[in-house]
Design goal:
Distance between the termini: 70 Å
Order of helices and strands: HHEEEEEEEEEHHH
Radius of gyration: 27 Å
Strand order of the largest sheet: 1-5-4-3-2
Strand content: 25-35%
Number of strands: 9
Shape: elongated
Largest sheet: 5 strands, antiparallel
Number of helices: 5
Length: 170
């Protein structure tokens, strides 16, 4: 009598898979955190940008020095501004709350900060009156911008002004 190959495969499967009860322990289970995407328009994100009083720094990102100031990026939160005119006694000035912030750069008196796939520009010529500035106005005043194709163009896909500014159309 010839054994059926499917029957033998099923028998082999059940015999070869046994539960390893010796190595199972409740302590092996861990909580898993996962990310749920939140969709917002660039203007809705821009409305969340604020200049706040001092905030305790919880994580460290990119650090940039400019004149007598230090700008410390706190990833996904914003930028801390520190007066470093007396290096032995630095003074926290303010915090720019910017959701989705990972990178910062300073050119002339403009602080460029990313917000997810958008870009915020702040005039920092007078830090007592930090104000958000328009990227197009910053470039018109002489600030150059390079290497910003990709995400920036895609974020402003329907704005021909930004496409001309960056020399691309997405």
């Amino acid at each position: 009598m010839k054994a059926h190959p499917l029957f033998l495969s099923v028998i082999f499967l059940f015999i070869s898979c046994e539960r390893d009860t010796d190595n199972i322990d409740d302590e092996d289970w861990v909580n898993v955190t996962y990310v749920t995407p939140v969709y917002q328009t660039a203007s809705a994100i821009a409305e969340q940008v604020t200049v706040e009083d001092l905030k305790e720094q919880t994580s460290l990102g990119k650090i940039i020095t400019y004149q007598n100031y230090v700008f410390v990026n706190e990833p996904m939160e914003g930028v801390h501004i520190v007066d470093n005119s007396d290096p032995s006694n630095p003074t926290n000035l303010s915090f720019l709350s910017i959701p989705g912030n990972l990178d910062i750069s300073i050119i002339d008196d403009y602080l460029f900060i990313d917000m997810f796939s958008s870009l915020a520009v702040f005039d920092i010529s007078d830090l007592s009156k930090i104000q958000e500035n328009n990227l197009i106005e910053a470039v018109k005043s002489g600030v150059s911008i390079a290497g910003a194709h990709g995400g920036l163009v895609d974020a402003f896909r329907k704005s021909t002004n930004y496409q001309f500014l960056l020399g691309a159309n997405g």
